[in-house]
Amino acid sequence: MKLIIAIVQDKDAHVLGDEFVDANIRATRLSTTGGFLRAGNTTFLVGIEEERVEEALDIIRENCQSREQYTTLPMHLDTAMDSSMSFPIPVQVGGATVFVVPIESFFRF
Ligand code: 2BA
């Protein structure tokens, strides 16, 4: 048994959740926040038999797109006037960040 931890963009979470249900893959959704952009994303926890891991990864791959997002960096102007401004920089956010970890024990009571 493995635990798949998949961090995906909120825009893809709904479709991905539906695809898991259709494939009879059990998942838990957590509302999470990216440490860099500090924007909301969604983390799926999927406990799954080892022989179905590739199937679950294929579903994630097919339903999560990479997109460009913008973040702003503060820029301090080195002038006598104490002024600063911020400017947008593009950041490529991946379709999904996925960890596959072994499960020592699994119980459903
Ligand atoms: P965020 O931390 O908000 O990162 C969003 C995107 O910003 C990242 O996309 C990456 O392109 C960029 N980025 C992140 N940290 C950066 C840095 N220190 N300098 C420059 N650019 C940076 P992804 O790599 O596709 O990550 C998407 C989300 O997946 C992340 O959102 C975070 O929530 C999660 N994530 C990514 N790698 C992770 C890791 N090693 N451990 C835990 N969570 C991770």
From TrEMBL:
What protein is this chain from?
A: Uncharacterized protein YaaQ
- SUPFAM superfamilies the record matches: GlnB-like
Alphabetized InterPro entries for the sequence: CdAMP_rec (IPR010375), N-reg_PII-like_a/b (IPR011322), N-reg_PII/ATP_PRibTrfase_C (IPR015867)
Question: Per the UniProt entry, what species is this protein from, by scientific name?
Answer: Granulicatella balaenopterae
